[in-house]
Specification:
Elements: E1 2-7, E2 12-17, H1 22-26, H2 30-65, H3 71-112, H4 118-132, E3 137-141, E4 154-157, H5 163-169, E5 175-176, E6 178-180, H6 189-196, E7 199-201, H7 206-221, E8 225-228, H8 246-254, E9 258-264, H9 266-269, E10 282-287, H10 296-313
Parallel strand pairs: 3-10, 4-8, 4-9, 5-8, 6-7
Antiparallel strand pairs: 1-2, 9-10
Length: 318
């Protein structure tokens, strides 16, 4: 039963109405009662979400406006980018003049020193020193472990950065790097690599890999040294990757020692994939004692262990 109350200035009446039959409720849609009961709850949830989002936005704005949250980070990035621009400006300017010397000297190099090409490597050393010296300091350890000037060897090293090549050129040793064929197309730099006798390689081409190893063995037998990055590519997280055995097979088949080299700091100064930046820092080069043997697996594990031990000592993960 439903009671309704009507009020006026003169009288008040109570009216009684019989309750509606059950069929009245059965005729309503299935969602009628759900909508009428849940809708206030939905509105309340929406209101709470709006309050929460306004709170989060205010906290984000206040955090982003604080000097310690954003300003120093953007400032350091800007400085690193500016240093990177200066670095490439210097290396390009120096390369233009030294490249002319390489062109002039190349006919004489082919006549008198076709395989080692010491004159070209001396020019490359000057180029690397003039490029790096204004920005970075390099510390060397174990220089006495380097072989005699004309003694061939197989050098191996960890690979962290584009700076690795510059750093290794400062050693002044006449070793031949292995590089992707696409790098040879770069003006000045690629042409200079050709004059240095850098060995081209197509990474995904097995035939190119075999030709590369054969050429390395031929150069070593004729008195030149070769330099490998056994990881095959630059490390993106700073960790030491798995070593491939190609370099150690060359050493075994030619009977020359393996010289492990550990590079420290290049990956932090110019990380892989961020070649446009030059962060502040120092570089350390550790030359390990030569390793000799007749088993490529043994040489591979020993060389990696020596490099990994130094990286761990310097706080790197391997």
């Amino acid at each position: 039963m439903v009671v309704s109350y009507q009020s006026s200035s003169k009288f008040a009446n109570f009216q009684f109405h019989p309750s509606p039959p059950l069929d009245h409720f059965r005729q309503k849609p299935a969602g009628f009662f759900l909508c009428t009961s849940v809708r206030p709850m939905i509105l309340q949830v929406k209101e709470d979400r709006c309050k929460l989002s306004r709170c989060i936005i205010r906290s984000d704005i206040s955090a982003s406006c604080s000097a310690s949250a954003s300003y120093p980070l953007s400032e350091s990035q800007a400085i690193s980018k500016f240093r990177g621009i200066c670095f490439y400006a210097v290396t390009s300017f120096v390369a233009i003049f030294l490249f002319v010397l390489m062109v002039v000297a190349h006919p004489f190099v082919l006549l008198f020193d076709k395989y080692r090409r010491k004159a070209q490597h001396l020019i490359a050393k000057v180029w690397a020193l003039l490029t790096i010296s204004p920005f970075l300091k390099i510390e060397f350890e174990g220089l006495h472990n380097l072989p005699a000037k004309d003694a061939p060897a197989v050098y191996v090293s960890n690979h962290q950065s584009f700076l690795d090549i510059y750093t290794l050129l400062t050693l002044g040793k006449s070793f031949k790097f292995i590089s992707k064929t696409s790098i040879f197309l770069f003006p000045i730099i690629g042409w200079a690599m050709y004059f240095l006798g850098t060995i081209p390689l197509k990474r995904l081409d097995s035939r190119s890999q075999l030709d590369c190893l054969k050429r390395c063995m031929d150069l070593v037998k004729k008195g030149a040294s070769v330099f490998f990055f056994p990881e095959g590519t630059r490390s993106k997280d700073g960790k030491l990757g798995t070593f491939k055995k190609g370099a150690f097979s060359v050493a075994v088949k030619t009977g020359v020692p393996v010289i492990p080299v550990t590079l420290i700091g290049t990956g932090k100064i110019m990380p892989a994939g961020m070649e446009g930046r030059l962060n502040p820092g120092g570089i350390k080069v550790v030359i390990h004692p030569p390793i000799e043997g007749k088993d490529p697996d043994f040489l591979c594990s020993e060389a990696r262990k020596k490099i990994a031990d130094v990286l761990i000592r310097e706080g790197y993960e391997t």
